[in-house]
Structure formats: C-alpha cells, structure tokens
Amino acid sequence: MIELIERAKDFLDRRALVDPNGELSYRELLEKSAQIATHLLDGKKDLNEARIGFIVDPSLDYTILQWGIWRAGGIAVPLCVKHPYDSILYTVEDAEISKVVYHNDFYKLIKPLEDGTSVELISIDSIESKTVPLPDVEMNRKAMILYTSGTTGKPKGVVTSHLNINCQIKSLVTSWEWSQEDYIINVLPLHHVHGIINVMSCALYSGACNEFLPKFSEEAIFDRFKRGSCNLFMAVPTIYYKLIHYYQSLSSEEQSEISAALKEFRLMVSGSAALPVKTLEEWRTISGHTLLERYGMTEMGMAISNPYKGKRKPGYIGQALSGVTVRLADENDQEITDGGQGEIQIKGANVFVEYYNRPEATAETFVDGWFKTGDIAVFEDGAYRILGRNSVDIIKSGGYKISALEIEEVLRKHPAVKDCGVVGIPDEEWGELIGASLILADQSVSIDSVKKWMKDKIAAYKLPRKYIVQEDLPRNVMGKVTKKELQKILAES
Predict the structure, then answer these.
(1) What is the residue-wise DSSP string for 137-177?
(2) Which CATH number goes with the domain that contains 454?
(3) Number of domains in the chain
C-alpha cells in the first residue's frame, strides 16, 4: 500500500488541507480521493499505471485528484495552470495521457483536446460520491511524471515511483523534524517537487496541515502570517526578494507586527535557485531566521540540506540528507577527493526511475548507478557550495573555470546594483568573456562607474579583465530571461 496515504488513517480527525474555499480533514481527504479513484476506474480493477493528467489551481481539489489517481493505480501528471495550450498538448501527447480531469476554470484552455486527440476530459464537478474496493498499489509502482524545464531541448517527463517519493518525503520529515503540530502555507506551483513534495506531501505524511494560497500576493502572505497558526514557510529566492521589498515599503508599525509574527516560526526554507547572500541577510534582519538552503532536482527530490539544528552557512547547501549518497566527479566521471570542484552525482532510493519513453536520455544521465546532476560544486569546511550549472553557470575563460554565481554575488555588493545576471559570452581569444546584465537601484549611477568598481574585484579573483556589462535589456532579467537567452542578448549587443 502507498505509505503516504496509509498514514492518513492515523490522523483521521485532524485538519489536513485548507484553501480559500474551505478545509478538509484527513478522513474527508480519504473519502473524496476514493470517489475520484472509483470514477477513474470506471469498472476496471486497476488503472495499471495509465497516465492521468489533471489541471486545477493549488487547492483541496489538487490533493484529492492526486491521491485519487494514485489509489486507482494510475500515474499522476499535473498540468501547469499557467502553460499555454501548445505546452499542455505537448505534455499530454508525450506522456500518452488517456484522461484529463479539470476544474471548470480551465475547460476553455483544454477544450481543443476533445477535437485534436483521443483524450477523455472529465470535469471534477461531474464525479459522483460513490466508491468501490480499490486496488492494492505497491510502493514500487510508478506514481508521477513531472516535466523538466527543457533547458537542453524539449522538456522530459521525469518518472518517479511511490518508493522514490516516499524516500524523498521521509528524508525531509526526519531532517527538518516535521510533526503533526506543524502548519505550513503553500504558495508554490504544484507541477514541481518543491510545492508537491517538500511542502504538501511532507505535511500530509506528518499529520500536519497544508494551507494553499493559490494567488501570490505579498500583502496576502504577510496578512496570513500575522493571523498566526502557521509555523513553517518554504519559498524560492524571488518570493523572499519580493516580500523583503514589500516589507520595506510599509510603516514601522506594520513592519514591527510582521517581524513579531515571523519570529514565532520554527523553520523557513529557500530553494529551487541560488539564494543571494544579500537576500538571506535582509530576511534574517526582518524575521530573525537564517533561511535553510537545500539542494534538489525533479529527478531526485532533495539530496543535500543545511542542518535544521546547527550553523547554516550563507552560500552553502549543507550535507547529504539521510539515505542519500553524494560525490563530486571530474569530467571523466572519476570521484574527486582532493577538494577540487566537480559535478554533483547522487545515489539513493530517492532517485527517479526514468525519463518517460526516453531510454537513451535516461542512460546518458547515469554512470555506474550515479545520477549526473550537471551542477558543479566544491566541498569545503564540511559543506557543499554550488558553483553553478555546468552548461551556463560555469564560464570557461582564459584557462579558468569561473562560477557565474560567485561573480553575481560580488556585483550585488555594489550599492547601486539591485540585481544582476552573469553569463559566458563566446570569444575567440578568451574562449568566453564574462557578461553581466545589471538592474540598477540607483539610475544616476553610470555603468562606467560600476565597471571601474569591478576591476579590482575581477583582479582579486584573478579572472580575465575583459568583460561586458549592459544596463538595459528588452526584458527584466529576473524571472523573465533564462541564462541562455541572456547569453544571446549580450553576445548580440
């Protein structure tokens, strides 16, 4: 049986889920997910790993549908509510989805599936409240397909089993000391492991409560914090950045009220992207918390984490989680033992099964059982520190391997720099130049003055002095332009 769902029977009368429209106990979650499973089975004994898509906002319905698909023996494929139709069609066709369950808010978006494919569309409102005996789903069965961002081609479907998911959950529940008394606010998208596993599933495994806030709003988040009851929060660096700048716009009285509420939390986590040290320090001043940074991927959930208890080092992601084995390897996939930089490679029951229908891509990402993450790091002072993504964050210039993330941290220390993005620009002489795009907080400061300021910093790193800095771009860098797009823009400048 699926351990996550079986554990719900230990917490039947506790509150499991809350959203703006209501709440569910664990008993009600089991009842309603059984109804979903019954409808999907439609007289069959078992879905036998049929891929079932679903598209709903982060809400009670999301969890009910996910659990219902699992309890019927299906593979859950959450569709991103912000994707255009072409992206949804790609996922539906690539995952060979047979049915899509939807909330009526998304019917207009997915209606073309009725005419262009053989997919059956099912409104969640059409599902009746009857139940039948459900199949016994073993933990080694495939459970979920999440699609990667597609930075190296079209997105790939990452297939995880119930055992993979269970291991991902248990390592976090143990390391971060989850309990049934916890209450977490979930503001994350639910087609990524961050929101699905780290927040929602860890809460439900523990008998805790997960509250959805489907629409992001700095004001709504802070208002919810001030009302009390919640004691955990997990977000991406961009969310913390937005919360900090909203907080700074408030009156001193409002700031004091928010800070007092935040100090009552037991844990705050940042992940999914590198956390700027400046953001960490500003949030610590506001909340009294040093954000816990961790490291993971769609293919493996979380693998490395700073300690829940103990010193958290800014810029570091910590040590391997329980049940996970980590090594650094060179370009020939040989383990590095001399303290040098190398690719993070992972072994453990947390690692995914396969890329759906892509045996060659699956084989390419493993070496002797180690999953090759593509991320470069060093191990120093007892913790791992990410240098960047091998493909875009490691700049190879003048014989040096340079971390774009480290250069970004230096640039952010300039008082006029609000944010920045650094990439390598192809160059015949150097191999690559250091390219930086800046978002200035003080528009009166010239780019030339920033360049002059950077010269000493670049020299201190013993890096090539020749670099590009651009002030204005067609689009805001943060959250809108990928590193590869930025590289192309700067190269054409």
Answers:
(1) --TTSEEEEEE---TTSS--EEEEEHHHHHHHHHHHHHHTT
(2) 3.30.300.30
(3) 3
Closest alpha carbon to 207 in 7, 3, 6: 7
Q: Where are the alpha helices (DSSP H) in 307-367?
A: 359-364
Whole-number Cα distances in Å, 137 to 6, 102, 142, 174, 197: 11, 24, 10, 25, 19
Residue 45 counted as domain residue: yes
Helices and strands, counts by H and E, the chain: 17, 26
* pTM as predicted: 0.83
443 domain-assigned: yes
What letter does residue 317 receive in the DSSP assignment? -
Range of the domain at 213: 176-290
Residues 416 and 487 in one domain: yes
**Between β-strands 157-161 and 354-355, what pairing exists: parallel, antiparallel or unpaired?**
antiparallel
DSSP string covering 375-443 = EEEEEETTEEEEEEETTTTEEEETTEEEEHHHHHHHHHTSTTEEEEEEEEEEETTTEEEEEEEEEES-T
**Structure tokens belonging to residue 4:** 């996550």
Local mean pLDDT, 10-residue blocks, the chain (493 residues): 96 97 97 98 97 97 98 97 91 97 97 92 95 96 88 81 98 97 96 96 98 92 95 93 94 97 96 86 96 96 96 91 95 89 96 97 95 93 85 65 75 81 71 77 77 64 49 45 64 61
- Output phi, psi for 224, to 5 deg: -65, -40
Of 290, 309, 329, at which residue does a domain stop? 290
Per-residue DSSP letter, 236? -
